[in-house]
Amino acid sequence: xxxxxxxxxILAELHHELAxxxxxxxxxxxxxxxxxxxxxSMSLWQLATHVVNLLAFKTLFVTHDSRDFxxxxxxKPGPTPTSHAELLERFEEYSTTLRKELQxxxxxxxxxxxxxxxxxxxIFDHPKGTALRIMGxxxxxxxxxxxTVYLRLLDIPVPGLYGPSADDKN
Length: 170
Known about the structure:
metal ion binding; Four Helix Bundle (Hemerythrin (Met), subunit A); mainly alpha; globular
């Protein structure tokens, strides 16, 4: 349902994308964690962990005004999950936190800027709502798409994300 609330629109999109992401993560085989489709690619496990850790990054867009990659005291995600169950637990934890922070936010708050930078080098400086959409949701969707390719190459059925997949039709 369409609403004029920026916060509610982002929450609705987030709800859909989190459900799709969980379906992909459920199929990531821990026993093939080291799989790489190319030497320059992340391993399957690095990529799956990155998709989950991006949820904590999205929460920063809501709760903070900036993030400096050079700041040694800046919040960082936990250690790499060591099992499939741990990956899914982290996904649920980070998803819950993100939803909670976004629900507690306001439309006005989401219009305040978030600056992503590396020292003096500004990488991104846009309203929090825009940061959530571009650097948060779109970034995650991109990497989730990469995960679907990894699954396909490993001959693991890919679930439908925006309708049935080729595997759903068989």
